[in-house]
Amino acid sequence: MEDIKQPPNQIELVVDSSIITTNTQTAAPCQQKDLSFVSKKRYSSSSSILTRIHAGYFRISLSLCSQALLWKTFGDQPNDHDLQVFHGLLQAFPRAAFVLLWCLALFTLLSLSFLYILKCFYHFKMVKFEFFHHVGVNYLFAPWTSWLLLLQSSPLLAPNSIYYLALWWIFVLPVVALDLKIYGQWFTCKGKRFLSAVANPTSQLTVIGNLVAAQIAAEMGWKESAICIFSLGMAHYLVLFVTLYQRLAGRDRLPAMLNPVLFLFFATPSWASLAWYSITGTFDILSKMLFFLSLFLFASL
Questions:
Q1: CATH superfamily of 46-300
Q2: How much is the CA Rg of the chain, to the nearest whole Å?
Q3: Residues 97, 99, 101, 107: is their CA dihedral positive or negative?
Q4: Which range, of 15-19, 207-211, 223-227, 276-280, averages the lowest pLDDT?
Q5: Contact 200, 134 (CB under 8 A)
Q6: Which residues 6+ apart lie within 8 Å of 233 measured at CB?
Q7: Domain boundaries, the chain
Q8: What is the Cα–Cα distance from 178 to 214, expressed in whole angstroms?
Q9: For tag attachment on the chain, is the N or C end more exposed, with fewer CB atoms within 10 Å?
């Protein structure tokens, strides 16, 4: 018998190129859509950060810079012989801790300033609305006051250096410009922004900025400039203090989270006492009067 050879089983594979082409064409827009969704999500998240941040966040840097200045004052050698006893206790604070705190304050202030500058570019209408708000406009002084405090507590620059003087001018000019704008509205009643209608405890931030600038000018030896800025701040502080003392205007309109700003009532005269001490070089009667006023207001709060 002849061997019967059966052909092997063969499987025919048919590839439809039209289906593959269609699938690849439909997959590409889906990938592009996913990428665009991710990019939009990232943009919306960054935009949400810029819309949420406001000038009130600079109170964080303001407190950190104040603490850095306090630690520097603790570390300085006292001139009064009676303070030599306390100087040994103050030396318990290590120098590295002060430098670390100053760097933390610098990093915080740089971060907040960078985010707020971005907000000025991308959300200028919100910044403009904040400028015309009776509370938000006062916090516009906070970044410049923070920079002045950071400059005053700097472990790198001496008050008699040219860089110190240049930075002082850079940080003081915006404070003076805001003074002219805000105080001008109070005098001329432009836009019906009467002081009795818009005054609130945060308005004292405008005065503190002038007092810090005056204290630094006195430490640099610029007595006339220090007296000029000090008199400007104190003149408006007297009017503002009487307005707030009579009505406490704005306390009921402040958010609950801003109730700690009431402590600015004793912060302003205490800083005025330090500024006048830097100008005169002695803790005279005016400095003592301002100190006891701040002590009384602290006890009242």
A1: Voltage-dependent anion channel (1.50.10.150)
A2: 31
A3: negative
A4: 15-19
A5: yes
A6: 206, 207, 208, 209, 210, 211, 214, 272
A7: 46-300
A8: 16
A9: N
